[in-house]
Amino acid sequence: MASDPQEPDFEQALAELEKLVERLERGDLPLDEALKAFERGVALTRHCQTALKSAQQKVEILLRKSGGQPELQTFTGADTEGPNGER
Question: Nearest to residue 85, comparing CAs of 59, 58, 57?
């Protein structure tokens, strides 16, 4: 579930993004609507990328546990590093 009730979860965002792409690819939208759809698509893409990065970090936390045995631990997101050491 998304923490913000206004933000869709990953699957909802991806489905909406796919619909926007289909509409834009048809090429029949007026310019103003096409720009709004594109802007929404950029926002959805960023939302999906953030969700995927968070999921990747959770998996990395599980895999780093001692003995290689996956264990579940609380994930805060603020104190973990990405694959290239970025925060």
Answer: 57
If phi > 0 it is left, if psi is from -120 to 50 it is alpha, else beta; for residue 77 that is left
Q: Is the pLDDT of residue 67 over 80?
A: no
Task: Using the Cα atoms of residue 55, residue 56, residue 60 and residue 63 in order, give the sign of their dihedral.
Answer: positive
Alpha helices in 1-76 (DSSP H): 10-26, 31-63
3-state class (DSSP) for residue 5: coil
Residue 50: the pLDDT is: 96
Q: What is the pTM of this model?
A: 0.64
Residue 76 pLDDT greater than 70, yes or no: yes
Query: How close are the terminal C-alpha atoms of the chain, in Å?
Result: 23
